[in-house]
């Protein structure tokens, strides 16, 4: 039986909305089959993604009929026929043949490819058009490997998981990967969150200089798109780097914790525009290259990013789709049906000639579409396109977002923050309940507001990821304190999570109470029909604590030990209101503000509410019961898994933000939050800045 994949497999039916829709995949497949232009100026009027709400101001009077546009540019001293970088995908995450195909396609099309973390595959090491990655674990790194290719990339972070290191599950660490990465077989390859020799811009400068001396090659730095991207990029430019790869929120990955992937970082379009603007302001833009990565799904996306300031765009997931990816999102398990991300010792393999042909066709078609759009815009070179924001017009973007992007045309629009109905992610909850570990997934995020419709204000907010200016902390190897002191120190819990078991099935209640006691937390129950419900805590510090239930900041009972706020449409505004009232009176630290939550997407919600000003959250037992999917066996084990999984995810998120003590560093620290095209009035009311601002 021939197990070589040499044709496209039919797409499975998508059970939920996905960024990589059948339409996007179909367009990529069409290009990879024909190699000629298929669709230009693609629009998606239903999308809330910022990039989809930017359009070109087509000027037919200046259109150029000649299709021979100059799409070439220079990168690392080499000419690119089209400003495209075939994104960093490692040997191990991919199964070998795809790595070879990507490198060969880069040679044929005169573009550039990234090797990703983990050393070089033998058949790729001789390629000239590759960037070799130097990541935090130094897997497979040697003087020999660093002297291959055109350039070295210091990977500080990536868009799918800012603030944490790479993660290759042990099941994919086969004999070949063990040899390439110089690590034991069948053991998780978890890279440290920070580079342990880079804790400042000065340290980064030393590493860049050392690598330039070693290799006599230009050095680039790869970072995730996070809150302080303007400062990070200017620091990189002053450190002697040739350029930066900015990897935006939603970028693909072989494996990432869902809570990190869905909550951290900002869209690449905000980061690129901000970086380009500040580099120009600081006179650092000349001879410094910006490569934009993350969710570049077609040539229209790329054209917009060039106009916002990118010199080159990185194509990752789209290249996998061109080779046959059908988006089953099992990359982390090693059972890829099209032999792209399966184990390297699998009997199934990708036909290299087929893959090379498809990628080459895709890039040629991509270039043809770019040339056609450039002609219609009246420009014939990348120099005229890059950073030319006057080509762009905004639709459905707030005034703050337009200002940050530097787009002058279009009318500011503030969108209703509630665009859809909330639904539990049952798959996520079920995994948490059955494994007790941070939930892992692959490919990019479908989180709101860009893909799933936002149902709460926090769905428009992003958490910061630590990088260089504030180094991350490795939760796998370093201690992160999640203890919270409530009720004036009388109540100490092992994490800022309390479970409300009121109304729960008796067996569920007992299981959650037992699990809470086991990990050092508490459950509560009360009679909601009473005018002043009595709060009973069960667990490490059982007993009664006087909290007042409130609907807003009006008529706060100053004799209570704290306040319990029930979530509603304007929860985030009310949290800010109460904090402001108590803060102005100088008595905020005398009271606990606890939010009761029934709509729980993942552990990132907890961190966001803490950063807005809550001292803890109360999760409804209904969240746990939803994840059970009517399977009530082994309830004690599942309840413990549920709480332990949340606790581990909180540690991961804390480490990724560079926080070692959650209560003292996160509560009320709104600098760790940024918004993504949130209604301007709401953003000002809760005092959250737009992503990419400075």
From TrEMBL:
Keywords: Amino-acid biosynthesis, Flavoprotein, FMN, Glutamate biosynthesis, NADP, Oxidoreductase
SUPFAM superfamilies: FMN-linked oxidoreductases (SSF51395)
Sequence ranges assigned to domain Glutamate synthase in this UniProt record: 69-380
An example molecular function term from Gene Ontology annotations: glutamate synthase (NADPH) activity
GO terms, biological process: glutamate biosynthetic process
Catalytic activity from the UniProt record: 2 L-glutamate + NADP(+) = L-glutamine + 2-oxoglutarate + NADPH + H(+)
Parts forming coiled coils: none
Protein name per its UniProtKB record: Archaeal glutamate synthase [NADPH]
The species this protein was found in: Ferroplasma acidiphilum
């Amino acid at each position: 039986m021939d197990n070589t994949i040499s044709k496209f497999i039919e797409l499975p039916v998508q059970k939920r909305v996905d960024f990589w829709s059948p339409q996007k995949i179909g367009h990529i497949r069409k290009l990879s089959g024909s190699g000629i232009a298929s669709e230009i100026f693609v629009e998606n009027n239903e999308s809330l993604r910022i990039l989809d709400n930017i359009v070109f101001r087509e000027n037919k009077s200046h259109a150029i009929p000649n299709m021979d546009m100059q799409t070439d540019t220079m990168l690392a001293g080499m000419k690119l026929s089209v400003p495209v970088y075939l994104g960093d995908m490692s040997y191990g995450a991919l199964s070998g043949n795809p790595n070879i195909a990507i490198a060969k396609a880069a040679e044929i099309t005169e573009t550039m490819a990234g090797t990703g973390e983990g050393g070089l595959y033998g058949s790729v090491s001789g390629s000239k058009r590759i960037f070799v990655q130097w990541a935090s674990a130094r897997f497979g790194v040697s003087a020999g490997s660093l002297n291959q290719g055109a350039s070295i990339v210091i990977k500080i972070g990536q868009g799918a998981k800012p603030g944490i290191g790479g993660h290759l599950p042990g099941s994919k660490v086969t004999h070949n990967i063990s040899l390439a990465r110089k690590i034991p077989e069948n053991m998780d390859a978890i890279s440290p969150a920070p580079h342990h020799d880079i804790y400042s811009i000065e340290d980064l400068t030393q590493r860049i200089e050392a690598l330039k001396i070693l290799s006599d090659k230009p050095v680039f730095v790869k970072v995730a798109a996070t809150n302080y991207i303007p400062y990070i990029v200017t620091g990189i430019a002053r450190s002697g780097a040739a350029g930066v790869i900015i990897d935006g929120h939603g970028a693909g990955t072989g494996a990432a914790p869902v809570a990190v992937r869905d909550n951290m970082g900002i869209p690449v379009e905000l980061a690129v525009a901000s970086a380009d603007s500040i580099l120009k302001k600081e006179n650092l833009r000349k001879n410094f290259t910006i490569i934009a990565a993350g969710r570049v799904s077609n040539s229209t996306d790329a054209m917009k990013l060039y106009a916002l300031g990118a010199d080159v765009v990185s194509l990752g997931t789209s290249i996998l789709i061109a080779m046959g990816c059908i988006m089953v999102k099992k990359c982390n398990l090693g059972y890829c049906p099209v032999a792209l991300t399966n184990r390297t010792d699998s009997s199934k393999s990708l036909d290299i000639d087929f893959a090379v042909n498809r990628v080459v066709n895709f890039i040629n078609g991509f270039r043809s579409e770019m040339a056609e759009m450039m002609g219609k815009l009246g420009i014939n070179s990348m120099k005229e396109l890059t950073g030319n924001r006057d080509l762009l017009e905004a639709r459905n973007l707030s005034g703050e977002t337009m200002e940050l992007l530097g787009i002058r045309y279009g009318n500011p629009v503030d969108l209703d923050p509630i665009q859809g109905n909330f639904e539990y992610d049952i798959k996520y909850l079920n995994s948490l309940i059955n494994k007790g570990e941070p939930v892992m997934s692959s490919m990019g995020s479908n989180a709101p507001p860009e893909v799933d419709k936002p149902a709460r204000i926090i769905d428009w907010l992003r958490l910061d990821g630590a990088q260089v200016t504030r180094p991350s902390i490795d939760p796998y190897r370093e201690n992160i304190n999640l203890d919270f002191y409530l009720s004036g120190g009388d109540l100490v819990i092992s994490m800022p999570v309390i479970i409300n078991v009121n109304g729960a099935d008796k067996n569920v209640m007992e299981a959650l109470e037992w699990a809470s006691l086991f990990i050092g937390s508490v459950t509560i129950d009360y009679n909601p029909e009473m005018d002043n419900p009595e709060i009973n805590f069960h667990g490490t510090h059982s007993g009664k604590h006087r909290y007042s239930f409130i609907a807003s900041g009006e008529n706060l009972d100053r004799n209570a030990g704290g306040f319990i706020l029930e979530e509603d449409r304007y929860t985030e505004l009310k949290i800010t209101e109460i904090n402001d009232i108590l803060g102005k009176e100088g008595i905020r630290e005398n009271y606990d503000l606890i939010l009761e939550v029934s709509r729980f997407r993942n552990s990132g919600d907890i961190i966001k509410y803490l950063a807005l000003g809550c001292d803890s959250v109360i999760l409804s037992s209904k969240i746990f019961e939803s994840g059970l999917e009517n399977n009530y066996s082994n309830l004690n084990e599942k309840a413990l898994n549920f709480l332990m999984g949340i606790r581990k995810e909180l540690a991961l998120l804390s480490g990724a933000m560079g926080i070692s003590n959650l209560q003292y560093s996160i509560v009320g620290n709104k600098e760790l939050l940024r918004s993504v095209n949130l209604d301007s009035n709401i953003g000002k009311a809760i005092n959250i800045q737009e992503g990419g601002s400075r």
